Fold this sequence. Notes:
Elements: E1 7-14, H1 21-35, E2 41-45, H2 53-64, E3 70-75, H3 82-91, E4 95-99, H4 114-127, E5 133-137, H5 143-157, E6 160-163, H6 177-184, E7 188-191, H7 193-197, H8 205-216, H9 224-243, E8 248-251, H10 256-261, H11 266-273, E9 279-280, H12 285-296, E10 303-311, E11 316-321, E12 337-339, E13 349-353, E14 357-367, E15 370-381, E16 390-396, H13 400-409, E17 415-420, H14 425-434, E18 437-439
Parallel strand pairs: 1-2, 1-3, 3-4, 4-5, 6-7, 6-8, 8-9, 13-16, 15-18
Antiparallel strand pairs: 10-11, 10-17, 11-16, 12-13, 14-15, 14-17, 15-16
Helix pairs in contact: 2-3, 5-12, 5-14, 8-9, 9-11
Amino acid sequence: MSTKHRITLGLVCLARKTFDWQAAAGIYADMRKNLAKLDEVEWAVVEELVIEPEDARKAAAFLATRGIDGLVCISGTFHLGHLVLELEKVLRKPTLLWGLDELPYDGGKIRLNSVCGVNLNASNLYKAGVRNYTVVIGQRIDEDWVDAIRIIARFRTAHVAILGYRAHGFFNLQVYDPNAFKELGVLVDHYELDDVWGQKIEEGALAARKSQLKGIFDVSGITEAQLDKVAELSAKLNAFLDAHSIDAMAIRCWPEFAAGYGISPCAAMSLLQSEDRILACEGDLEGALSMLAHRSIGAQTPFLFDFSQVDLEKNFALFWHCGVAPCNLWDGKCVRSLDTYFAGGKGVTADFVLRSGELSVLRLDSSGTEYRLFIQKAKAIPMEKELRGTYMKATFDLPVKQVLDKVIDNGIAHHASVVYGDFIKPFRALARITGWKVIE
């Protein structure tokens, strides 16, 4: 079953009858059959070739009724320059300009001249101030572009929330809400900590969560009262997210939480994140959005970490946080436990080593009104359970000092989303569409 965000893409094929438009029509029919197999994409298809400006206007009017997230514009042959501009005038969506490989020559005449059509479209759009187009040449669609559209669409449809505020003193996690709306289409809703603390839960929910926690963790390091609190908070957070249809939420988890509720939310967040909830600690809204972006392209169970340690001699970093990583990502070897090592015994964190494997790191990060994407490939390698909290030892393709320098020199915030697997290229494609800076 796919876990990617479902999107709707428009599809048109442009042509001109001075070239081999019949061959282009046949190619287009075959392409539609192949594109129909693409995972989690609904197609709004203009089946006839778009040849005259009036055809383009009709196509634009049709596609406008379908609520498309992006436009795939095939240059079946060379064509009039009006066509892509008529589409852009109405649709105003990111566009993939797709050029075809040339067919064998027929009597000394070029048959498609498709790439020249792409060149014309790109130049017309660029000089009209439209820069959110991407180009692909060949037989296959650019699936990284498709995934980039998923990210853009998910931001615009997600219900994103912040509970409380950013953590005390974490000025670098502050988000300018109007700019998040302008750049991402994200409208942030604010809730108070009391809204979760006072959330009503169904009868039996607390007992079910308590039993679940005891089945996952060694709870001998906390009291029965603390276990009850973790179970209760897990149930309350889950019910709150459901009641408000929240897709991603950042939580001000300190300093008030432990004092006001009796425990920190770390262990409850670890449990709920293992159930596919997107929860960011310390009020890190852009951390939550980074996790949401990972999730939209099929990455499983994203979570936030700190660069807590770098060993320059041994060339590794410690990805650590105070005990909030999803408990299903445990390495399967160490003991998963709950502990109270901070906040005066009210910490109640998850403690375990995360499993080894290929990693992708992302931080969607703003500075003023500028958005940047920090991306890196990494690898989690085995380590012993030596610390409290949740953590892994990671190596990079680059020397770890170079990675840290990129973070520090560009003022990237101290949290990033990490997932298992290779999820790098869609963010390069996203940056081409949005004009954001890529740091890698």
